[in-house]
Write a structure and sequence with these properties.
The complex is a heterodimer. By secondary structure, chain A is mainly alpha-helical. Chain A has eleven helices and two strands. In chain A, strands 1-2 form a two-stranded antiparallel ribbon. Chain B is globular. In chain B, 43% of the residues are buried. The chains are: A mainly alpha, B alpha/beta.
């Protein structure tokens, strides 16, 4: 467990690496607001190309950005179908009668089994999921045989298609923006940026320094504690525990037998760490200097101006449109 | 008045069983003292009390005439640092650089000066090439060296090693002790808490703790001549000393062996 990577950060050089994390965080938030202000597909497409150009200028590996979207594919599909099914405005494009019959239900059960078997191979999961959904439509539409339980109408309207594309482009832009942030900013810099931005919260009694210290210590101890977990698992496995198999009930038991020692060790560690920090003169709430000082540079001014201009433009478009 | 004065120190976690009883100890600047004791003798408790992590029930600890209290702890910790047993549990920073900086950040050292100090002290403990490394990529010995650098960067005069080598492999242990020797030669006062007599041999003075009291305190050679002290405090003598003691003076060949052995241990 020597090379565990926390966060998505990849070391590199380029425009976004030179920026102060604070500018990056604020810019991403501002640009997200701007994206939400845009009201039509053409506008979003322009925004999308601007983002693409930005990534190209900043030398961001597109593959990684796309990979960052993978976990959100379910969300994307959900919004897509939600819009298609429930938006009933505009021209009617498609109107089909779907049959829920003995044959079509059996067909779907069979289709589901095939889908699960294919999914087990592990590749093209998204394509398979899409094919599965399409298949269900086909089965409902073209198998009106046997005893019919019920029928329902499946209709697609123009506005539904439009909105689903609109929402998806918007989500894609927003995800790529945040991916650019996490790809080019170390978790520690991100925390420090957030800390610095949250400093005004002191008025309501929230100390952002404590928050940042907690995050950075957690980041530092994740590999250590993971290592610990593997050691305990190995120790338990050597005495006959089987983590891979067994019923759910057994697995839960095993997780508990792992968690209990982990917690005890973690408490011991935190006690030691508190001693070490105190002996090195750490006093909670006392001002400290920083080894990493955040500094704004020319890049920050440039990107800041660009971001504000983009926001201003979208506001103007919103008012005119 | 010595640089470090511990006077009639008593401590108990519960108020019933005393972990430390009437400990009095004077340590001069630049000394290397080994505090030796078996498990449960109170040696780690003494170490924690000496940096103000535990508040004694009775007695005082003073550095350079200043008595350690809650108010003076901050200033006293500028003079005395502690390296703990577990290398992982005292590594605060995300990288080596951050960890060396931690103490200085707490002392409000300006950033520019911190960077210079980090350069200097990381070089000193041989960790300059590792400044951007994360702790999970370092060995135990390297982490302990980072801990030393972090303490030195705070301009401390005294370093307490609380079983600091016990979790290291033999090579890393010898390495670390060599660093400590160098520091001691440069004038840093070293207090080494240990249960390992071989490690205590590097010190000039031995303080043997037994059941929370000082059992004996003195120059190591004078103590080694009284093996019963070690037996009574459940400590094992180094193999060479045991052998030397076991050999009989009456046989000339054995006498030669004995002389040789005494010679070899006085060279360590």
């Amino acid at each position: 467990m020597k090379n565990i990577v926390i966060g998505q950060y990849i070391p590199g050089k380029g425009l976004f690496y030179r920026m102060d994390p604070r500018t990056k965080i604020i810019s991403v938030i501002t640009l997200m607001i701007a994206i939400f202000l845009l009201g039509s597909i053409p506008q979003l497409l322009v925004a999308f190309s601007v983002c693409a150009v930005m990534m190209w200028v900043g030398n961001i590996p597109v593959k990684r950005v796309i990979r960052g979207m993978k976990p959100l594919i379910i969300l994307l599909l959900f919004t897509f179908f939600f819009q298609i099914f429930f938006n009933k405005e505009g021209k009617l494009l498609l109107d089909e009668v779907m049959h829920v019959t003995v044959v079509s239900v059996l067909g779907i059960v069979l289709w589901t089994i095939i889908w699960r078997l294919l999914a087990r191979i592990g590749k093209f999961k998204t394509v398979l999921l899409l094919a599965y959904i399409m298949g269900i439509f086909v089965l409902f539409r073209f198998l009106p045989f046997g005893y019919s339980f019920t029928t329902f109408r499946f209709a697609i309207y123009e506005k539904g298609i439009e909105m689903s594309i609109f929402v998806i482009i918007r989500l894609v832009i927003i995800i790529s923006l945040s991916t650019v942030l996490t790809l080019t900013t170390k978790p520690t810099d991100l925390t420090q940026g957030l800390e610095s931005l949250m400093r005004p919260l002191k008025i309501i009694g929230i100390r952002s320094e404590d928050f940042a210290l907690i995050i950075s210590i957690s980041l530092r101890y994740i590999p250590t504690i993971l290592d610990e977990a593997f050691k305990i698992m190995a120790a338990q496995a050597s005495r006959g525990a089987d983590f891979a198999e067994g019923k759910l009930k057994d697995k839960v038991k095993q997780v508990i037998s792992l968690l209990v020692p982990m917690f005890i060790i973690a408490f011991k560690r935190s006690e030691d760490l508190a001693d070490a920090m105190e002996s090195r003169n750490f006093v909670p709430g006392k001002p400290r200097t920083r080894i990493h000082e955040l500094r704004f540079g020319w890049t920050d001014i440039g990107v800041g101006v660009f971001t504000l201009a983009a926001l201003a433009l979208t506001i103007v478009l919103k008012v005119i449109g | 008045m010595s640089y470090i004065e511990v006077k009639d120190l008593s401590f108990s976690y519960t108020g019933k069983r005393m972990i430390l009883k009437d400990i009095s100890l004077s340590i001069e600047k630049g000394e290397w003292v080994a505090i030796l004791g078996h498990n449960g003798s109170g040696k780690s408790t003494l170490a924690k009390a000496m940096v103000g992590l535990l508040e004694p029930n009775q007695g005082t600890i003073a550095y350079d005439g200043v008595v350690l209290t809650n108010d003076t702890a901050y200033d006293i910790r500028k003079k005395v640092g502690i390296v703990f047993q577990n290398p992982d549990n005292q590594f605060v920073g995300v990288t080596v650089r951050d960890d060396i900086a931690f103490g200085m950040e707490n002392l409000m050292v300006p950033q520019k000066q911190m960077l210079e100090m980090i350069d200097f002290y990381s070089e000193k403990v041989g960790m300059k090439d590792f400044l951007d490394k994360e702790p999970s990529t370092l060995s135990g010995g390297q982490k302990q060296r980072v801990a030393i650098a972090g303490i030195l960067a705070m301009q401390t005069q005294v370093i307490i090693f609380d079983e600091a080598t016990s979790m290291l492999d033999p090579y890393a242990r010898r390495d670390l002790i060599e660093y400590i020797q160098k520091l001691n030669q440069e004038g840093i006062t070293v207090i080494m808490i240990t249960h390992d007599i071989n490690e205590a041999m590097y010190a000039n003075r031995l303080v043997i703790l037994k059941d929370g009291t000082i059992f004996s305190d003195g120059d190591k050679w004078s103590l080694f001549k009284q093996p019963e002290i070690f037996e009574n405090s459940h400590l094992e003598l180094p193999f060479s000393l045991k052998l030397a003691a076991a050999l009989d003076d009456s046989l000339p060949e054995e006498k030669a062996v004995k002389d040789f052995l005494w010679q070899s241990i006085s060279n360590t």
